[in-house]
Amino acid sequence: MPVLNVSELNIVLTIIGAFILGFGVISVLIKNRWLLGEALPAMTLGIILGPLAAKFLDSSRWGSAEPGQVSEITLGITRVVIGVQLVIAGFQLPAKYQKLRWKEMLMLMLPVMTIMWLCSTLCMMATIPKVTLLATLVMAACITCTDPVLSQAVAKGPFSDKFVARDLREIISSEAGANDGFGFPFLLLATYLMRAQTPEASTLVARAGEEVVRHGGGVGQAIGKWFLETWLYFVLMSIAIGVVVGYAAGKGLKFALQRKWVDSESYVLYPTALGLFLLGVCGMIGGDDLLACFTAGSVLNWDGEYMCETLERHDEVNSSVDVLLNFGGFMYLGTVIPWSEFHQPDTTGITVPRLIALGFLILAFRRIPAIFIMYKFMPNVIKNWKEALFMGYFGPIGIGAAFYVEHTRHLYPKLADADEEMGNLLRAIGPTVYFLVFFSIVIHGLSIPALNAIYGWYGVQPIQDDAMLFERKSIRVPTPVNAEVGDDHTFIAYNRFSRPVFDDAELPTFDRTVSMGRRSMSRVSMGRRSMSRISLSQYPTISRAPTISRVPSQNRDRDREEKDDPADSTGTSSLSSSAETKAPEVETPLTPTPQPAQTIETPGLGRPTTIKYAV
Fold first, then answer.
1. For residues 351 and 551, what is the distance between their CA atoms, to the nearest angstrom?
2. Do 501 and 378 lie in a common domain?
3. Which carries the bigger pLDDT value, residue 311 or residue 206?
4. ∠314-319-321 over CA atoms, to 5°?
5. What residue spans carry the region label Disordered (predicted)?
6. In this structure, are 377 and 499 located in the same domain?
7. Taking a C-beta distance cutoff of 8 angstroms, is the pair 412, 422 a contact?
8. Are the beta carbons of 195 and 215 closer than 8 angstroms?
9. 477 and 360 fall within a common domain
């Protein structure tokens, strides 16, 4: 018989499904035209439907509704959301990127993060009362890292496709992936120093559930334990695990691919499975699971083959997983923001005006000074002060900070067992960090459309370098941002983040007329890889977009018949030759008059190369 079952699970499934359906209907407007992304709308819905307002979503009522379970649920959800997306971010970087940019990454991980940590500490000391210097260092460590999820949206979003140089986008993505795991040394250093103040015997235990109090020993012993347990065990071992797992996974996948044992679904789900596996392994041994996930993703695509194969298979799975995790993660984040703790002048001394002042101080001084101090030492990725300002401003605080807050709670005793210093820390860390998360998502989420409007007002032109031809899967697919229609089957996009990687030895060393049509482009073979995969993305010195020569529909069958014509070996593509046939052409707006091929010089490719594009 019918039974009304308004359970928490059914409510959550209904809301998430309804949001994805509604968002999907206008997703192009939200993401490409309004440039809002997924984080701000999802968090807003979580706030509206959470305990603050409608009370439909309340994680304290989930499952057995045990006291304190919200912290455990938040830690688990944030770990999964960040870990899986870090693997995806790692393999989407160019091949051997960490080897190529090791100097820049080293500066961003050590001096830049240290300056960010200290500047954030000063801002908190100026605004948050009743907390000591060491307690402020702990809270500042939670927001030192740039959020890996929001930073990927900045680096790979529609605005960056139009206006942000590829080198800058790549370093933003790589930094956000790596520094989320490198935040633990700063957090644990402050924690060890705080515990070393009194000589009470105890031990340091993370995530195990045992109570942790001060162990004494002084600063020297604290530094020694920090170096041994944090750097050698927590950081270096996690990097080693990521390298071994990523390398073994890549080799195993290549072995299976050569024998055609892997179908497309399993292949593109590999990063997700790799992230879940590493989260479980590192969680069991107490390692830095976030750093291991990013390392494994980078090693998986170390030679560029994995990324190349995903492009060949028209991978949309990883981007879909990314969006689904963003929806769920940020909607949940909106439900756990502790609004009632934002104004407690009698207990923590925290008030809303203090938090707002802290938000603007963090926005101005947390990251921008550090990048301005160091950007001249990174000329290969940050070319001028404008790019330094962009990178410094867009260092968002998001779901990664929530993860650090909940992890920090496991490093200290419960509030009832804590002394005054630790008690003030535990009372202040939640409202302080969660407010900064909310502040950053709102400010940075609205800054992108505002900056886009400013660029439009001043007539800033999108970047038109580094063109890339890719297949149009449906006639109803909207034209991507900073792209144009090639023909009924292709788009030509500019300044894209991901691109194929190949060896210099495979570059052509002779003149060749290459038409931009889909069929002829795929028939100009360069060793193992075809010209359609190399496209124009590997020729950064082409200064303008090629004009497309389209073939009338009557000539398409003739073009297919000429596919095996020996004349193709002379270096002239079928699409260009078909335009010279005697078959009548139909005058349509999409068919421009064929013009003589134009030679475009492309220096810097390792040896002299000239490529002729039919225009």
1. 67
2. no
3. 311
4. 120
5. 542-615
6. no
7. yes
8. yes
9. no
Q: What is d(CA 524, CA 514) in angstroms, rounded to the nearest whole number? A: 8
Q: Is 1 contained in some domain?
A: no
Give, as one character, the DSSP assignment of residue 396: -
- Domain limits for position 155: 8-201+216-458
Per-residue pLDDT band at 153 (split at 50, 70, 90) = confident
65 vs 84: which has the higher pLDDT: 84
CA geometry: angle 462, 464, 469, nearest 5 deg: 125
Domain count, the chain: 2
417-429 pLDDT tens trace: 888 899 999 999 9
Paired tokens of 79: 């770990």
Residues 383, 491, single domain; the answer is: no
Instruction: Verify that 276 and 378 share a domain, yes or no.
Output: yes
pLDDT of residue 453: 95
Query: Apex CA 597: angle with CA 595 and CA 599, to 5°?
Result: 145
Buried/exposed code over 76-100 (b: 16+ C-beta within 10 A; e: otherwise): ebbbbbbbbbbbbbbbbbbbebbee
Helix or strand holding residue 612 (H, E): strand 610-613
Label each residue of 60-124 as H, E or C: HHCCCCCCCHHHHHHHHHHHHHHHHHHHHHHHCCCCCHHHHCHHHHHHHHHHHHHHHHHHHHHHH
In sequence order, what are the residues at sequence separation of 6 or more whose Cβ sits closer than 8 angstroms to the Cβ of residue 19?
42, 45, 327, 331
86 with 56, same domain: the answer is yes
Cβ-proximal residues to 265 (8 Å cutoff; 6+ apart), any chain: 317
Q: Is 449 in the same domain as 485?
A: no
Residues 450 and 490 in one domain: no
